[in-house]
Every structure is written in C-alpha cells, then in structure tokens.
Amino acid sequence: MKRLILMRHAKSDWSGGPSSDHDRPLNPRGRKAASALGAWMTSKELMPEQVLCSSAMRTKETFVRLDLGDIANFRYDRALYLAEPDTLLNALQAATGDCVLMIGHNPGSGMMAEAIVQETPNHPQFMSYPTGATLVADFDITDWRDACWGKAVARHFIVPRDL
C-alpha cells in the first residue's frame, strides 16, 4: 500500500510585499493553519517518508510550519509550482517513499484530489479545495509507477476550519 497526503498550501499574503506570485509568503492566518495541520497530522500518525513541495515561498513555509521533524527525503520542485494534475501525477509516480506528502497549489491540487479517488469525501469543501485542504488517500499498489486516476481510497479530508 502507498499513501498520498495531498495538501494545498495554507493562506497566503496578498497585501503587497513581493513583486512575484512565486515569492508570496503565508499570512498570519496561514501560518496558524499550517501549524494546526501539522499537529493534526501528528495526532493521526500521518508521517510522510518523502515530501514533494512546490518551490513557491507559500508552499515552503507551509511545509516548515507543519513541524513534522526530520524528513530526509524532500525536495522543493519548480515544476510543481501551479502544476496541472498530470504533472503532479507524474511527480508522484516517480516517488520512492511509502507515504508521500505533496504540497501544491490550486487548481491543480484540487483537480488531482478529485481525479485520484474512487469516491469523493463527503465534505462540503472538498470540491473547492480551499487553502490548507488536505486529502489522505491510499493506493493498493506496491510501486508509485502504478498510481493512476480513480484508484485511491480517501481516508481523511480536512480543511483548517475543521481544526
């Protein structure tokens, strides 16, 4: 079995500051939400062996604020910045850990979440996949190369407002 934790970055700061979208940090609400998501993951014993994270400032900051301890196998990847679902799936298919945390952006992350599960979670915000949305899905496979659309079983879905 392989497990994917698919997270959209926490709430970012639109108040000015950096001149590029790629360099936008989290706002105070986003920082608090990322920490709460990390505490939730820890309480559920959802500890990734590998992290695939967009290179954007807000995704990097989300990962750091999850405070999951030492994860030796992680990378910040520019290709995941505003990536389409197929790009995200391709990155996942190259993963090596049994439990992979992928932190990205909408609309790609939300579209991927909807496309990989056999049945969508019964949650009013699943289809909008708001900031901080996190899907935990299991694949009945032994190698990530075999991950494909519509094959995962959703185990958890949460948004920061649920915490």
UniProtKB/TrEMBL annotation:
Leading EC class: hydrolase
Superkingdom to which the source organism belongs: Bacteria
Annotated spans, Disordered: 11-32
EC number(s) given by UniProt: 3.1.3.-
MF-aspect GO terms: hydrolase activity
Pfam families, A to Z: His_Phos_1
The keyword Hydrolase appears for this protein: yes
InterPro entries per UniProt: His_Pase_superF_clade-1, His_PPase_superfam
Alphabetized SUPFAM superfamilies for the sequence: Phosphoglycerate mutase-like (SSF53254)
Keywords: Hydrolase
PANTHER family the UniProt entry points to: OS09G0287300 PROTEIN
Name used for this protein in its record: Phosphohistidine phosphatase
Lineage, highest ranks first: Bacteria, Pseudomonadati, Pseudomonadota, Alphaproteobacteria, Rhodobacterales
